[in-house]
Amino acid sequence: MTYETITVEPIAGALGAVIRGPNLSQPLDQQCFAEIHAAFLKHLVIFLEDQDLTPDQLLAFAGRFGPIVNYPFVKDMDGHPGITEITKTEADTLNFGGLWHSDTTYLPKPPLGSMLYSRELPPRGGDTLFANMYLAYETLSDGMKAMLAPLYAVSSASLRDKSEGGARSRIAAQTGRGQNVDQRDMAAEHPVVRTHPETGRKALYINCAHSSHFVGITPEESRPILHFLFEHMSRPEFTCRYRWKVDAVALWDNRCSHHYALNDYQGYRRLMHRVTIEGDTPV
Ligand code: SIN
Which DSSP letter does residue 184 get? Predict the structure, then answer.
């Protein structure tokens, strides 16, 4: 696509691009939105910097991509349903999203994508890493692709909390926003390789935060293959790293990318506003 209303600057070979031009505080015309949407599908994660937005303007932009849904474990910001405040204070030791994952794959319809708007940042650190799951799939051998093709994997909400020593529960408590569902009840089965509903490309769709085992294969039997795939998916050449500036909006495609919030800013505060966009049933 030739862009006429925006410029697109890739930040790495694998994925990620900064988009310049749009002012998200104003309604975007059809062409501008179509170009942003095309860049989103091509680059998997996009960043729009220097955006001075009210919560309603943030929600209006996110809502162009699809209906807004609640994040299951952390309550919405007071007065602004659809926005979750992700806060790490000077005293907190744990962070939210500090391992490679695709969001909430334990839901039957995991989100299409998520949007983060940076409000307060540490003087250094607190970057977010992203990884390209199309590349992770495409670089597997034909034999491995054939083996994975018919498989489904179980995603469990409790796995991540267990692996992080109850981190998410404690984060919810630390942020004072509590939990609004019982996480133990949430699990879903999804294809290990999914076909992106908009691009038609195949992507690996398991993640080390939530995928516990393959359907019909025990956790012990699944573990060596999952271990190999989790290592493979996070190869540095499949990733990009975004260094946040205040007032930046990021949007990632949860259907074909993973992300990882770095926790390397102990003693400093970081506050993000997060919006989740409804997805479909992976196939
Ligand atoms: C998340 O996993 O949604 C948080 C990402 C971040 O704070 O950088």
Answer: G
The CATH number for 139's domain is: 3.60.130.10
Say if ligand 1 is within 6 A of residue 114 CB.
yes
Residue 252 forms part of a structural domain = yes
Atom of ligand 1 nearest to the CA of 101: 2
pLDDT for 145-173, tens place per residue? 999 999 999 999 887 665 555 556 655 65
Q: Which two tokens stand for residue 1?
A: 């696509």
Q: Residue 172 has which token pair? A: 């919810």
Q: List C-alpha distances in Å: 27 to 70, 110, 122, 253.
A: 23, 27, 31, 22
Residue 117 Cβ < 6 Å to ligand 1: no
- Residue 41 in any domain: the answer is yes
Within a 10 A sphere around the Cβ of 149, how many other Cβ atoms?
A: 11
Phi and psi, residue 104, nearest 5° = 40, 50
Closest by CA position to 191, among listed 225, 153, 229? 153
- Give the total number of structural domains in the chain: 1
